Structures are given as structure tokens and as C-alpha cells.
Amino acid sequence: MASSTEPGQSPADTAEHTDRTGTAEQTADHTDTAEHTDAPASTGTSTADAADAPPGHAPELALELLVHGVGGTTPQAMLDDPRTVLVTGDETAGIHRRAEDADAESRPGDYPDRPVPEAYSWANLTSGNGTRALWLLLLPFMVANLAHWMRPATRDRGGAVRAYGVLVRLVALSLTVLLVAAACEVALDLIAWQCAGTRACASDRPWLAFLAPEHGGWWSAPGRRLALAAAVPTALTGLLWWLSHRTWSAYESQQPPRHGAGEGDPEERDGAQDLPALRLAGFWYGRRLVARLRAAHTAAGFLTVAAALTAAAASHDQEMGGSAWLDASGRVLAAVLAAAGAFVVWVVWARGRGEKEADDRVDRAIVRALPGTALALLVAAAVHAAWYRPGWSSEGALPGSGAFGVLPLVQGALVVAIAATAWWLRRGGPDGRTVLGGLAGAAVAMLGCALGGLMSGGVAQRTADWLDGPATPGTGGGPLQGPPVVLSWQAATIPLLLLVLAGVAVCFAGRTWRNGRLEAAEVRADHGGEPEDSSRTRAIAGTLARARLTDSAPWLVGATAALTLLLGGVAVLGAWATGEVPEEAAEGTTDLLAAAARSAQELGSWLVGFGFLLLLACGRRAYKDAATRRTIGILWDVGTFWPRAAHPFAPPCYAERAVPDLTWRMVTWTRTTGGRLVISGHSQGSVLAAAAVWQLAPGTRRRVALLTYGSPLERLYGRWFPAYFGSRPLHALHRQVHCWRNLWRRTDPIGGPVLTLDGTGPEVDRGPLRDPLAYGRTSEHPLPAPILGHSDYQADPVFAEERTGLLERLPRVPEQRQAGSGRSSS
């Protein structure tokens, strides 16, 4: 039962109309029906002509769908034409064609020996105006979310997999609490409690005068100052909720085409319960979990602020002998806050991702009631703290700020538990290419905690330094006691961490230099019949050696994570054992040790603040400068490729928009025209292309070829995310897609081979390709050929050869029709 085009309307217009209206789901359902016969529906002039013409002579159309990688490639550059038109989509992400190809479906005879090229541009999903640099503030959340997807490959579908997800979600929750606690430290402790309550600090800042005790105003009471300052972390929590809700609506609320798992494919139908995860219909639509986690994290933020207010008031009521009813109400409020916090943990614990179907349901009782209840408790805590208490004064640090020492301990314990769970899972499904023996998720979770500590400590240290004037916060030389002691200990460990990492970097540099010399000998041997050019040889060898650095990244990540865990533990123990900053703790020891402690604390405090500012500056520059964006783009795009499964405040997942876009385009175009399609993906675009092909119904997938080049599918994704792109899922993709070829170069630091089969079928990989195409000057290359590395794969003649070969391997519509003339077509 196929729809037909209106008179005077081209198939392309029909496809565009389908993309822009609400009938897309019906289109996908009809697609499944047509696919059972392997015969596309008759839906337009070009298809009808193809059916009436003799086999082999019909004007059948072929399409090349280009998907770019990172770096903000424009449609004009992808299509090599300044005149392009938007076929379907919007300014954020859309399908573009050359102006001359806009109506190609109405004249297939003009393309007898070449496909119609069209480009899917998704650059604005990850880069845009400079305000998106603010997303860099969410970097710890993104890193924690990555840890969820780094679960080792295993056949165990039971408790261990679930435990891994729960532990990562708890780490993510601790990061939200850490960020809000840092805002409380700055607003409540350093500004409202310490600075506003100290004459020497408040007198130099007129904007704090109305809060100073000497002013004698209504806001001068410590509890009222704290209640007013609580508006800052409360607003921060609300902003995070709003950003998460807004970006979900703008980026990730795209419905995938609906079809039954394994429908029309015997291999999948027989093992539908064990399909690759990216093949599942609900993989790119996690609305239910994101809404649930967003409510829990928002409530956790509000409860953290409420706990800070309640702890400060309770300290006075219990220690100073305040009003009995205030003491009793404070105890009741603290118990209610503890119960609410336990319920938030249960909400995070109880449910993970459901990927078998696109789940539109929302746990409304939790999503609506939980943040509102937490906000009501926060208001109650603010009223309780603001109640008049005679004789209450603010001295020293804010009571309850010692929680900063508990958070790193909890995070460290969770990371160790993740490592133990990953080790157990690894035993059930070993994969020799998995990085760090399956412990990559634990290492990355540790780095997420370290980044959260760096950013929270950086803000606190810089604010304390600004308020304390020329004195070093916490040393007694200024009006403020400074941030919590544990932050000073953590800052003091940073110089040692950087020193060790500098040594690792030197080792990598030496290894690269040594590899460069070895590669130079191979380059000279490969071009032994040509005149020697030493500078040319060194350039090629250096590129080859630097390209191999990518494979050493796991050691750097593992070393950083292990050292961070060790030094973080030392910092917490030091703070708990001494109760003093490192400089004071070292007093009474040797002069050398005391000087080292003082220098480490001062340098670390400066580095923490500088590192936070540098992070913001790099983010701003990345969105304004194309070269910087290309440099860090691959790391950012890997992080935001994955759905928000652990942290709802992580930056939005562009793939939850891009993958459905590509899937819908392939479904509607092949159904409307019945033509052949090759989806051609470069770099990160190859990952999007593979994910989109996985989402196709089996019948559509048999009419689509996959061409990847400069692809990190195995080299990066397969090693770091083995449960989703490891050897087993990639072999399954090879069996399910009609034909697939991958091009790679040794000079490419990102791409590599994806799947070489040994006599079991057509090999997927072709490479390594020559790079440069010519060593010296030749008649074909009179000028020096550039070293292309990761870019411009289309410049190699092999590219056009492989694309043509893929199109020839796809079944032609007239041949299908002729062979199945006795069957009915839907």
C-alpha cells in the first residue's frame, strides 16, 4: 500500500513533504511492508519508467549521501559547489544539494553513470555562536556520562551490567551535588558568612555594606544573610534544569522510524533478544530516563542548598543553647531533608535506560513532584535560618562546609566499585582491543570527578583570593579563614600531578621521535627508486609517528586517573588528620618541608584558578576559531555523540537528532524512488552513518551501501566503547548491511581499519592508501603532493573507484522487478 506522487510533483518533493509533516511514521510503516518483497513501491515517474524499461537500460537513479566529520564543514565545501540549496531540514541540520541537482528525481536519465551527491550538514548541532562556550562548564558531567558507555563487552545481561549503570549514575549525581556545593561555598560561606560578617572585608566592598553587622539592618543577621545568598546556588540549579529541558526539546526529541526488531531478517528474527544495542529502536530516544534523572538532579541541587542553610542554623541552636522550638524544628527539617535525599538516590538507582522501544512515557509523579517538593523544603530551610536568633554571629568557616571532605571520599569509593564491576564484566566477554583492560570507564569517571573538583575548587580559591586581598586565603594573614581545608590540600597536590604528567609527556615525545627515525627508514625503502629528499622524508615520517600517538592515549588517561585517585586520597586524609592547610600542618618540621608545603599550596591555588579560567578561554576560542575547533573537536564530539544516560545536565547529544535525520532520509528516499543509495561518512560522520544504517529496517538496509573513510569506528569507538562498537557489533553490522567499504591511511591520527575478514566474505577495509600520492615531482603531480593525513580522502582516485564498486554491488530495481514479476508489490 504505497502512496503516490501528486500530478506535477517530483519524488523529491514528496520525500521533502514527508520529512516536514507528521506522516513520517506512516511512511516508515509502509516501508516495512514494501521491504518484504524486496521490491520498492511504484511512487513516481522515475520508478515507473524503470519498471517499464528493459532490464539494464532503465534510467535508475543513485544517490550519494555525504556526512561530514568535525570542524564545521559547509555544504558548499562538501559538494564542491558555491551554489547549493536546502532540500529538507533546517538551519541547524539539513540535507543540501547543488542547485543543478535539486530536481534530479524528475530526470534520472541525466545521471546514467554517476550518483546524485547530497550533503547532510550537522555542524550547527555542536558549534555555533560563542555562547555555546558555556557548555564547557558542563564538561565534568559530559565526562561522567561517557563512563556509562565505556562498559566492557560481555554476554552477561544480568546484575553486573545493571550495577555498572547504577554506580556511574551515582557518580554523576555526586558531581551535581559538588557543583551546587561549590556555589554554596562561594555565596554562603565566603561572601555572606565570612566576608560580610568581617569588618575588614565588608568595609572595602560597598555592595556588601547592607549585610554587615555594623549596618544594623534587617539583613545583617547571619541567618538572613545566608538565606539571601542561597538565591545564587538556587538560581544555578534552576538554570541547569532549564538548559537540560530546553536542549532536550531542541536536539534530542526526534522520533526514530518504527519497525519491528528483526522484521524481515531471519538472522535478526531468530536472535532478536541479543541484537546490537545500536540496532534497537529506542537507542536514540531516551526521553523517560532523561526526564527522570533531570528531576532527581534538580531536587539534589535544591536539597544541597537547603542542607547548607539547615546545618548552619542547627549548629547555633545546638551549641549556643538557642530556642528549644527552633532546635526541634531544625532537627525535624534535617530528618526530612535526609529522607528526601535518600528518595533522590532511589530514583537514580531504580531505573536505567530502556532501549528496545522508543518509550514516550514519563514518570509524571516523580518528574513534577520531586523538584517542587525539594524547592518547598529549600524555602522552609531559608525561613528557618532567617528566623531571628539573638547573639548569633558569624565566625570562622560556615558550619557544615566539612562536607567537601566527604564528597571526594564517596566519589573515590564509587570509582573503585566501578573498576571492580568492570573487571568482573570483562571476564565474561574478553576483547583484546579493549583499552585499559576494560577499566576505561572507571578511569574516565575518575577524570570527571577530578574536573569537577578542579572547577569547584578553582571558583572557591579565586573568590577567596579576591576577597582576601593580598593575603593567601586560609593562612591567617587576611580577614578570611578561606575555603575548606580539603580544597587547599587538593590544590597542593596539583603541582606534583602536573610534574608526573610532564614526565609522561616527555616519554611520549621521546617515543615519537624514535618512531619517526624508524619510519624514515621505511619511507626511504618504499621510495628507493626516486631521488632522496631528506626534508620530504622527515615530514612524511614525522606525520606517521605522530599519527601513532592516538594509540598511546589510553596510557595517559590511565596514568592520570590512577595518580588523581591516589593524590586525592592523600589530600582528604591530610585534611582530616591535621584540620589545617598544608602550610600550617608543615610548621614545626624542617624548613625545607615547610617551604615546599607553602610553595605547593600557593602554586596549586593559583593553578586551580588559572586552569578554570583557561578552560573557559579555550571553550570560547573553540567556537570562534576553526583551527582550534578542529583540534579539540574530536574529543568534544565523541563526548556529545552519546545520549544522556548518566547525567541529565551533560551537553546535549547531537546524534539523537542526526541519526534519526539520516535514517528518515534513507527510508523516504529509497521508498519514494526505489533507487540505490550509498551513505558516505568521513571521520565522525562515519560513526553517524553506521549508527543510521543500523537503525534501518532490514529491507531498506539491503538497498543501502556504506562507505567510510578516516573512520574512528574501531580505532577509537571499538576500543573505548567495546559493548557498542567492539568486534562483535561491527561483525554484526557487516552481516546486516548489503555492502561496506572502509578507506584508511597510516598518516591518519584518527581513522584506521574497521573490520578485516579472513576468508569469510568480502573484506571491508582497503588500505593503507598512499599518502602522499607521490613522493617527488611526477608528470601527474608536477608540484609536491600534500600529506593529507585525516583530510580530503576524495582526492585519492581509490575513493571514486570504491564508490562505483559499491553502487554496482547494490541490486538494481529493474532486475528485482524482472525476477519478481510474479509477486505482488505493495
Automatic annotation (TrEMBL):
InterPro entries reported for this sequence: AB_hydrolase_fold (IPR029058)
Tagged with keyword Glycosyltransferase: no
Region of interest: Disordered: 1-57, 91-113, 804-826
UniProt keyword list: Membrane, Transmembrane, Transmembrane helix
Keyword ATP-binding appears in the UniProt entry: no
Basic and acidic residues: compositionally biased ranges: 14-38, 93-113, 804-815
Superkingdom of the organism of origin: Bacteria
Compositional bias of kind Polar residues: 1-12
Biased composition annotated in UniProt, kind: Low complexity: 39-55
Record-annotated membrane-spanning stretches: 133-151, 163-183, 226-243, 295-316, 328-349, 369-388, 400-425, 437-460, 487-509, 555-577, 603-623
Name the UniProt record assigns to this protein: Integral membrane protein
Organism: Streptomyces pathocidini
Lineage, uppermost ranks: Bacteria, Bacillati, Actinomycetota, Actinomycetes, Kitasatosporales
